[in-house]
Structure formats: C-alpha cells, structure tokens
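Please decode residue identities from the backbone states below.
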C-alpha cells in the first residue's frame, strides 16, 4: 500500500469509510461528513509516507478525520455548534444502539450533547465509535491517562444527568 498500490488503498477506503463517516458526523460535521471523509482520505493517501509500519491504520485515519472535522467546525461561523450536533442521523448508530428504545437513545444523546466538548469527544470515541483507550488517545491526540480521566469525569456527569438510568462504568 505504501508503494502507491491504488487497489490496496481502495480496499482500505472501502473497509474504513463507514467508521470515518460516523466519526465525522458524531464529532460535528453533520451534513458535511462526506466532504470531511473524502478530504481525510486524500490527506491520508498523501501522508502514507509518514505512516509508521506496524501501526494500526484505523486510529491514524480517524485522527485525520477528527482534525478535518475540527477544522470544519471552527470554520463555520454562520451556524451554532448546537445546531450541527443536533444532526445525528439514525443511520450513524450501531445495531446495538437500535436495541435501545428511541426514547432512551434520545435522552442519552441529549445528555451527551450537553457535556463540554472534551467529555463529549471522549465518550463518542469510546462508546459510539467503539474505540479502545489507545485508539481514542490517538484519534484525539491526548495522552492515554487524559483519556482515562476525562472518560471517568464524563461518565460521572452522565450519571448525574441521567440519575434514573444505568450509565456504564
């Protein structure tokens, strides 16, 4: 792949495009998620020379998607952040999320949107994108200990906001 094999890169795009789009949407790209994903794959292709052999491709790619999404969100001046975060299409959610009642899911998403950005990002990566701690640290560009502490605080806040609901520890 690093040698410019477009077929191998095409396979990576097919394999990782769905999670890249979910990442972009959940981190705030909303309806512009496809553009973010496309730009991210172009940047990833151009930066293949800096990709470390033996490293996982998915966290590296999702870090690019997260950065592109941050750039997009920062550049939006005409819309508020809350409006963009409210655009969470149902197709983004995992099949496991569909098992939850619509009401429960809506309550949880509202509580998630109410969290400060640093907490919302870490919960999104860990639970909505199902990344492990190290992958989350890579995607967000934080030390692993920061991921752990912010996740702990975020879950504590969610427990407070959803006192009658079970929030994973």
């Amino acid at each position: 792949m690093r040698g410019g094999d477009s077929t191998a890169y095409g396979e990576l795009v097919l394999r990782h495009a769905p999670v890249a789009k979910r990442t972009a949407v959940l981190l705030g790209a909303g309806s512009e998620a496809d553009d973010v994903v496309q730009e991210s794959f172009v940047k990833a292709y151009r930066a293949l020379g800096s990709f470390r052999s033996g490293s996982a491709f998915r966290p590296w790619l999702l870090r690019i998607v997260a950065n592109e999404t941050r750039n997009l969100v920062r550049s939006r001046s005409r819309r508020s952040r809350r409006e963009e975060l409210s655009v969470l299409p149902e197709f983004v959610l995992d099949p496991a999320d569909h098992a939850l009642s619509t009401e429960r899911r809506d309550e949880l998403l509202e509580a998630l949107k109410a969290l400060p950005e640093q907490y919302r990002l870490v919960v999104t990566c860990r639970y909505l994108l199902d990344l492990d701690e190290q992958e989350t640290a890579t995607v967000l560009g934080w030390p692993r200990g920061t991921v752990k502490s912010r996740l702990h605080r975020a879950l504590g806040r969610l427990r407070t906001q959803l006192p009658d609901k079970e929030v994973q520890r």
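Observation: The mean pLDDT is 83.
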